[in-house]
Amino acid sequence: MGMMLGMAYLQLFGYYLKTSYGKERRQGPRRSADDTGSERRHNDRRNSTGTMGDLPFDVFSRVGRAEWDTLLFFYGVVLCVGGLGFIGYLGMVSEIMYGDWGATRANIAVGVISALIDNIPLMFAVLSMEPEMSQGQWLLVTLTAGVGGSLLSIGSAAGVALMGQARGHYTFIGHLKWTPAIGLGYAASIATHMWINAGQF
Q1: Same domain, 47 and 120
Q2: Phi and psi at residue 102, to the nearest 5°
Q3: Are residues 194 and 142 in the same domain?
Q4: 98 and 111 part of one domain
Q5: How confident is the model at residue 52 (pLDDT cuts 50, 70, 90)?
């Protein structure tokens, strides 16, 4: 919801830029025929490269460059979570993780799992389980799902989208060299949270 609201604001801002840009062009000083022709040729060259068009700022043109495999990846993950919840596997997993392991171990495991599954559908799965936890534990699972998703490039929406846009420059294997450092940050963030918010557990 917040993402769509932000995109709506950006689109309104793009419309404002378009109208103000059009007014400036209409109210500009009259130029000679040679100047006008030269400017038109210059604009045509810039339009052909995609750097400037009738709309100076269009957020949806950027979103439209997302590849179908990226979109289908997230659709498939959300569909799998919904299917697992429908046939009852999420309830079984909840009993094992939050019943047998305990909330702290389960929430730390959620962070590791989020490196393989995007954190948005994973948190949807946790909310569907409806485990009884303290406020500190809910903050912990929010922290682990967010930070743990960065352990692998496929664990976050940003990583998957970036791999689709920057092929050859940002890859799954290339991200692995940062995994040890991210893992240390993951452990440190959990320890810091449990130290600062000990009273909420």
Answers
A1: no
A2: 100, 155
A3: yes
A4: yes
A5: very low
